[in-house]
Amino acid sequence: MGSLRDTLNNLARDYAIAWSSGDADAVASFFAPEGQISINRGEPLQGHDAIANMARDLYAQFPDLEVRCDMMRWAGPHALFVRTLEGHHNRTGNRVVTRGWEQWELTPNNKIKSSLEWFDAEEQQRQIDGA
């Protein structure tokens, strides 16, 4: 049996792969059934359906979305998933690279109970607009 470090590094790798797959249900499967995500202090999206719909919306904007895990840190049931998102915007065709992170609270079986995501939305919009 691998160490907690291996388990969490594999979780981060597999989460990035799921996001890059274009499969919204695969993304939602990383969350506990009652799991939630809040983006830049937005209203929390709770449950697999809401999380999958959020992922579908992102895929609609960036059909070739790729997510890379840049770093993973953890302390007990808390983890920090630092990532880069890259893709071409569906309307403008502009290449967009957004860096950010998710602060996770994990369940005992390493599902995401709560995720607080942070990224620079203004910078992302500048790149979409080509400014």
Order of helices and strands: HHEEHEEEEH
- Side by side, the strands of the main sheet go 2-1-6-5-4-3
> Spans of 5+ residues with little confidence (pLDDT < 50)?
none
Strand content: 35-45%
Radius of gyration: 14 Å
Number of helices: 4
Q: What attributes does this structure have?
A:
single chain, 131 residues, alpha+beta, Nuclear Transport Factor 2, Chain: A, 6-stranded mixed beta sheet, 4 helices, 6 strands
If you had to describe this structure to a student in words, what would you say it looks like?
The chain starts with a helix and ends with a helix. The protein has helices at 4-21, 24-28, 48-61, 121-129; strands at residues 31-39, 45-46, 66-75, 78-88, 95-106, 112-119. Helix content is 35%, strand content 40%. A hairpin with a 5-residue loop joins strand 1 and strand 2. With 131 residues, it is α+β, with helices and mostly antiparallel strands.
